[in-house]
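Q: Hi! Curious about what Gliding motility protein GldN looks like structurally. Here's the sequence.
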Amino acid sequence: MKQAGSVAVAAVLAVLAGGVAQAQEKESTKTNPLSVREISDSDIMMKKTLWRRVDLNEKQNQAMFSKNNQITKYLIDAVKAGVLVAYPNDSVSTPMDVSKFAEKLAVPDQAVALTAEEKAAGFGDEAKTDDGWGNATPKDKKPAAKQPVDDGWGTPTKTAKAQPADDGWGTPAPKKKTTAKNTKGKKGAKPAPVVPEPPKVDSAAMAKAASPFNSANERLADEYSVLDIKEDWVFDRKRSRLYFDIQTVGIIIPADKTPSGLEQPVAYFKYKDLDKLFRSDPKKFIWYNFQNQAQHKNLADAFDLRLFWGRIYKVSNPKDRDLIGQYGSEREGLMKSYQIEQELMEQEHSLWEY
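A: Let's find out. The predicted structure is below.
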């Protein structure tokens, strides 16, 4: 009897232990759809989301921003061609309308709006003109009478009547009678009807008129000099290595290029789409190697090899604040950015210490 009771207790404990073990295991085998190299969620041991700001005018990043090979120019041209989809923010959930993207590229109107007091004082009223001394010039109600043109000495010149053409000897030439050569001897002949040609349709001009983009009113390619990169710092326990898994890339207009003096985001893109675009033409989308022009890299390989530098300005946190917002000043935010960079490097190094 005692033996049967102990067996039952052991069976119950085994069932409970199995249930606990199953509860601790991750049943999800999903992967991140934005990752170029997908890693199963169950294989991720550590993860942090980082936001970096890449200044393409810095020396280390100029290889991505060489003349006529700016990475931002390639992205904008791809959107215009319909090859790439733009998004308004780094969540990349809802595509941006093409007309809205065209507005982002246009140079803003920098005309200063006048206040009510300035308008009441007469500023901006182009209808009012003065004589240069602040006195308004009176408008003539009656038009001035036409004065005869003089000969330069004050004497009005007489209008010369049209003289008949002469034969070169002073004698007026007789008028010639015009007769139709083809109608000689043919009375009542009707001319052949003229068939109008159909107008030619310029398909290129029609496509240009339908396009919302106006290259004459767009910013220069050098003005899009900042990239906003969102990436996951991931440790894959199955492969026992660390990955910087780039999720999105955004184009930012720097503060010194905008009338408001603030950074202006243009659009964001899925890095998975960019990787596919860059690898579609390795010789076009290049990372310029100024040390050896025979060894230019493809931009997709340059991202994989981390041939760029971007300052960390935000790390995932409960209140979704950037470092400046968390620590109160730009100086403290900058110092914390370098500190986080060192901590991530030391954390990776500590994984291989025994």
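A: A fun detail: Residues 321-354 form one domain.
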